[in-house]
DNA sequence: AGCCATGGGCAACCAAAGGTTGCGCAAAGC
DNA sequence: GCTTTGCGCAACCTTTGGTTGCCCATGGCT
């Protein structure tokens, strides 16, 4: 199931970082750290993780490193989220239908 | 955003456990551990986590503890997954539209 | 050119979380 | 009544998210 992608977006700080990058188009470790409750180093580590799984890409600009979201990879991650969600949703629906069917049957038994 | 729910389903082992519980209706720490690459104790810890956030409930049966998924809470979790996914999806779409608009504009500039 | 402010990488360290082994206990089964 | 067996608890290890401290390089200012 490619758990790397999941675990990458599993961390709340990293999710917020992706949000910030999407909102601003791009950002550096320092600029992101200003908007997050963690230090620049922590952000840098997260960026390294996101970079490793391809969710972000870095372009060096002078002494700065501008990170931006890789759209294709994020789309992949979103698809995985949707997939798991859909699977569970389907099962929940099936359970619900089953429960309703049983209830109807028990009512029918009482009536009969 | 209720990160507890997210972090609960963020772990791949716990996701698989939820899958197994949904598939089988219910299960014990021992029965789940048989189908997982981890020890019973690890499973028990995960069950404790899932129990704490309300994703599963335990019903003692003799010396066994049968766990089953709380449908309402799982539905909540699925909704959160969908929400984050939808948010990113929307942003990705907006970016794509913007990129296309810019491309059209540059072509128009060349033509004019 | 020279200096200092600033962005960033590296290393050491800490705490929490996922995982393991080992133990002990209580309920089921013979 | 004795043995299995399912669980819970405790100690320990490793990874990971986070911190502080230090140093290097680049860029702006004078």
Report on the architecture of this protein.
Chains A, B: It holds the Pfam family HTH_20. Chains A, B: It comes from Asanoa ishikariensis. Chains A, B: One of its GO terms (molecular function) is DNA-binding transcription factor activity. Chains A, B: This is Transcriptional regulator, ArsR family. The structure is a homodimer of 112-residue chains. By secondary structure, chain A is mainly alpha-helical. Chain A has a domain of 68 residues: Arc Repressor Mutant, subunit A (Orthogonal Bundle). In chain A, 72% of the residues lie in helices and 11% in strands. Chain A is built from 5 helices and 2 strands, in the order ααααββα. A two-stranded antiparallel ribbon of chain A has the order 1-2. In chain A, a hairpin with a 2-residue loop joins β1 and β2. The radius of gyration of chain A is 22 Å and the shape is elongated. The N and C termini of chain A lie far apart (49 Å). In chain A, 23% of the residues are buried. Chains A and B meet through α1, α2 and α5 of A and α1, α2 and α5 of B. The first copy, chain A, binds a DNA duplex (30 and 30 nucleotides) through α4.
